[in-house]
Design brief:
This is Threonine synthase. It holds the Pfam family THR4_C. One of its GO terms (molecular function) is threonine synthase activity. Keywords: Amino-acid biosynthesis, Pyridoxal phosphate, Threonine biosynthesis. It catalyses: O-phospho-L-homoserine + H2O = L-threonine + phosphate. The structure is a single chain. This protein has helices at about 15-20, 40-45, 50-65, 70-80, 115-120, 120-130, 145-155, 175-180, 200-210, 210-220, 235-250, 270-280, 300-305, 330-340, 345-355, 365-370, 380-395, 400-415, 435-440, 445, 450-465, 490-500; strands at about 5, 15, 30-35, 95, 100-105, 135-145, 160-170, 190-195, 225, 260-265, 285-295, 310, 360, 375, 420-425, 485. It is α/β, with parallel strands linked by helices. The protein has a domain at about 95-110 and about 235-430: Rossmann fold (3-Layer(aba) Sandwich). The chain has a 6-stranded mixed beta sheet, sandwiched between helices. A 5-stranded parallel beta sheet has the order 9-6-7-8-16, sandwiched between helices. Strand 1 (about 5) and strand 2 form a beta hairpin. The protein starts with a strand and ends with a helix. Bound molecules: the ligand N[C@@H](CCOP(=O)(O)O)C(=O)O. The ligand N[C@@H](CCOP(=O)(O)O)C(=O)O binds near residues 147, 229, 269, 270 and 322.
Length: about 500
């Protein structure tokens, strides 16, 4: 059975069910498999003609060895079956030109890539709780810069044995993201705005996980904590699937030949999405470079270029708010992998990040990272120009986050001349960031004074595409969540909700 250990080295290894149920390791580290996992080439070849569900089951089974094939099949059909996704391929790879494809990950209920994992985790978590003999309910704490929150609320809505509390930065999400969250229905869902930025919100949640008194209070109320952020291994595995699926689609469409390496461009803030691509590569998926696209909060770009991670910088609010992050949680897993599982070094770096706000990795680590990753960033003006130009050139509308990726892809091509076929990972529907997207394609004048819903209609007319189901009717749904607190009040709120 495949076990999972902590990147900080002081937690006894556990099966996947234990890692998923716990979310974050008790020593503050992140769970990772104790050994590399490979996708056998013959198994990969056998998946070319299969649909997304079969591909997902194959990848998941390699990691979740304590889940039976029948359990995984049920989870996969529940997550990706029926009409949950509004595209038959679930995550289609769309050709823009001979060298560039867009992997659309936003056909799920909340119009962002988070649905790819957050339709799955609510199925895995109750199973994980049962497998580990858990007698308490699971209280899921989430920090969001906009997309994870809604996808987690929707995924866990009324899931028996769970209660979910989502914290978001009060002024750090798009208006559509906010409306999606404040109108969320469900008997087990709670939403709290925090007067702070995403980093403060995420640190607040991590403090709660690490606080013995909070854990005891949750226990008294009949709960144990878990996470639906990408710190939870159960969030990452379903994200590995779509990298395989994109590659298999390109093979099936005859765009690449078997074994041909491709690049992935990934807009990322918390480093979870691109880390999933890195795991796919380690499993044997032919990947040449992973191109990490950042916005003006370019802490990851600086790190990949210099080996210095320094969060001591100004925090900007951008038109790609889901990536407004300066503390990228999942980098810890990458560091663990490239140091050959050196928990001591990882612990020291993370301690240094916590206490002095920066760390610097050794040359060997930096070089290993640079051998795979390349990074650049886009400002808001460059993001808007990428939306406009891509629409003009390909008649294809990008959301702001994907546009950051497109800008960085163009930079990458210019800088390296690399001609490998490239998949641009599209993380959200353009309708979700309608204000910035409409301003980019229709002009600032055309959006001035028009509300979100007028802009949805305007974009729908402009593209000839329907407004996605998940964004319709937000103007008539009742607002159910209005609580706003200071970062220092997050613990109190959790105690009150869980009644410990
Ligand atoms: N971009 C995220 C931030 C949290 O990231 P996660 O992948 O760790 O959940 C968001 O939209 O909330």
């Amino acid at each position: 059975m495949l076990l999972y250990e902590s990147t900080r080295g002081s937690t006894a290894p556990v099966p996947a069910a234990g890692a998923i149920k716990t979310g974050i390791a008790p020593d503050g580290g992140l769970f990772v498999p104790v050994r590399d996992v490979s996708m056998p080439p013959e198994e990969l070849a056998g998946l070319v003609e299969q649909d997304y569900r079969r591909r997902a089951a194959a990848v998941l089974q390699l990691f979740l060895t304590d889940f039976s094939p029948a359990e995984i099949r049920d989870c996969v059909s529940g997550a990706y079956g029926g009409d949950k996704f509004d595209h038959p391929a679930v995550a289609p790879a769309i050709k823009l030109d001979d060298g560039l494809f867009v992997l659309e990950l936003w056909h799920g209920p909340t119009c962002a890539f988070k649905d790819m994992a957050l339709q799955m985790l609510p199925r895995l978590l109750p199973l994980a709780a049962a497998k580990t003999g858990e007698d308490k309910q699971i209280a899921i704490l989430v920090a969001t810069s906009g997309d994870t929150g809604k996808a987690a609320l929707e995924g866990f809505r009324d899931v028996p044995g769970t209660r979910i509390i989502v914290f978001y930065p009060a002024r750090g999400v798009s208006e559509m993201q906010r409306l999606q969250m404040v109108t969320q229905a469900g008997n087990n869902v709670h939403l709290v705005a925090v007067e702070g930025n995403f980093d403060q919100t995420q640190s607040g949640v991590k403090e709660i996980f690490a606080d013995p008194a909070m854990n005891a209070a949750a226990g008294k109320g009949g709960y144990r904590f878990s996470s639906a952020n990408s710190i939870n291994w159960g969030r990452l595995v379903p994200q590995i699937v779509y990298y395989f699926s994109a590659y298999l689609d390109l093979l099936r469409q005859g765009e690449i030949t078997s074994g041909e390496a491709v690049n992935f461009v990934v807009p990322t803030g918390n480093f979870g999405n691109i880390l999933a691509a890195y795991y796919a590569r380690r499993m044997g998926l032919p990947v040449h470079r992973l191109i990490c696209a950042a916005n003006r909060n370019n802490v990851l770009t600086d790190f990949i270029r210099t080996g210095i991670y320094d969060r001591g910088r100004e925090f900007y609010r951008t038109t790609s708010p889901s990536m407004d992050i300066l503390i990228s949680s999942n980098l810890e897993r990458l560091l663990y992998a490239v140091t050959g599982r050196d928990a001591g070094r990882v612990r020291n770096w993370m301690e240094s990040l916590r206490t002095v706000g920066r760390y610097e990795v050794d040359d060997d680590v930096r070089k290993q990272i640079q051998a795979v990753f390349w990074s650049d960033f886009a400002g808001d003006g460059q993001t808007a120009a990428a939306i406009r130009d891509t629409h003009k050139r390909y008649n294809y509308l990008l959301d702001t986050h994907t546009a950051v990726g497109k800008f960085v892809y163009d930079r990458y091509r210019e800088a390296t001349g690399d001609a490998h076929k490239t998949v641009l990972v599209s993380t959200a529907s353009p309708f979700k960031f309608n204000q910035s997207v409409a301003a980019a394609v229709l002009g600032e004048e055309a959006v001035r004074g028009r509300d979100e819903f007028a802009l949805l209609s305007a974009l729908s007319r402009f593209t000839g595409l329907p407004v996605p189901q998940g964004l319709r009717d937000l103007d008539i749904k009742p607002v159910r969540h209005t609580l706003t607190v200071a970062p220092g009040e997050m613990k109190r709120v959790v105690r009150e909700i869980l009644g410990g």
